[in-house]
Amino acid sequence: MSQSTQETIAVIGLGYVGLPVALTFAKKYPTIGFDISQRRIDELKGGHDATDEVTDDELRSSTIKLTASAEDLAEATFIIVAVPTPIDHNNRPDLRPVISASELVGKHLRRGAVVVYESTVYPGVTEDVCGPVLERCSGLTCGQDFFLGYSPERINPGDKEHTFERIVKVVSGQDGPTLDRVAAVYSSVVKAGVHRAATIKVAEAAKVIENTQRDLNIALMNELALIFDRIGIRTQDVLDAAGTKWNFLRFTPGLVGGHCIGVDPYYLTTKAEELGYQPEVILAGRRINNNVGAFVAQKTLKLLAAAEVPYHQARVAVLGLTFKENVPDLRNSKVPDIVAELAQFGVEAMVHDPLGDADEARHEYGVELSPWEEVRDLDAVIYAVSHSFYRDLGLDGLLARLRPGAALVDVKSQISPADVPAGYAYWSL
Fold first, then answer.
1. Is 138 left (phi over 0), alpha (psi -120 to 50) or beta?
2. Which of 31, 164, 272, 365 has the fewest C-beta atoms under 10 angstroms from its C-beta?
């Protein structure tokens, strides 16, 4: 019998990443799903996932042991840490969640166990930060009594095609036998196979550059959008034309939020600065992307001014608050940037989102979500997030909410300007 078939898996953190991972392992191994939130555990035990990453049927049929009791982790031989790694208000890495998780795991760590981190970090965190925490809290010696691995998460919230089992899994370990063990466990459930990284630091670096690359490509599109707006041509028309070349990369401008693309680059730039190097290209991309929300708001204000609508009387609605379409995740959304910029000029915009949680919106951003029936008689609508709810309405459904002569601001270019009736103002990023 191989080592991997004898493992008892524990997954720490049952969010967008951890829950799908835990349920997949539970199909093959005794698996413990742990979260510090008893409310989250109760919700999952009730057979429902508020993140919509897994179905109710998948939850109810799983053999997973769901718990908020850390003592249960003592059973585990293979522990996966999948907690958030956010940034603070100064755009510096906030390692508190991963350190707290390491302290919790360390207090219940059994001899011979492997601890694998999936949380996004800069190179060195697993071995230089988490390892010592595990040693301190367990009284065990890393590399002798327990072992470290790193396997970066690649879950894309809301994506039902690129799921945990269908994405090649990068794996790493602090030594050869640990790498073999980590690779064996993951390859037993990931159908797409695994890629063995040379070291843990290489695997950590691979994760941060995946999203840094996307961030920079989108930043280029956003800068082009700023230029084309001044020229007076539509960005989407330019991209459609350029996209006919076989090697043109199909990125589009937009708001860059969420827990990955808008966060991960700062983990790499912080490490670079610690080592005495001042990153230029990466931070330039971050600055461009962070200013898109304000730019969209300013274009809306110009459209209102052109229609001679007083700002303090304007009825404006922002459609969508989550960081991307068809997911309820509000983390690091850039839509509030639009709302805040409008408020600076006296425009109190309504915000509607069919998926976002009203309590979370209020707590995180001070935004009150408006019911759909109140979104009407508008002087301007900002179509910020292309949820299916809005796409299914079609152009006519959106126009029905507008006053004659109102402005339609189409952030993601979901509408063809040729279809917009005369008398309405239309602008897209």
1. alpha
2. 272
pLDDT of residue 4 exceeding 90, the answer is no
Banded pLDDT at 1 (limits 50, 70, 90): very low
Please write the tens of the pLDDT for every residue from 175-212.
999 999 999 999 999 999 999 999 999 999 999 999 99
Strand partners of residue 114 = 78, 147
260 noted as active-site residue: yes
Q: 351 with 369: CB under 8 angstroms?
A: yes
> From CA 412, how far away is CA 397, in angstroms rounded?
17
pTM of the model: 0.93
- Does residue 77 have a pLDDT over 80? yes
Pick the catalytic residue from 130, 137, 142, 260.
260
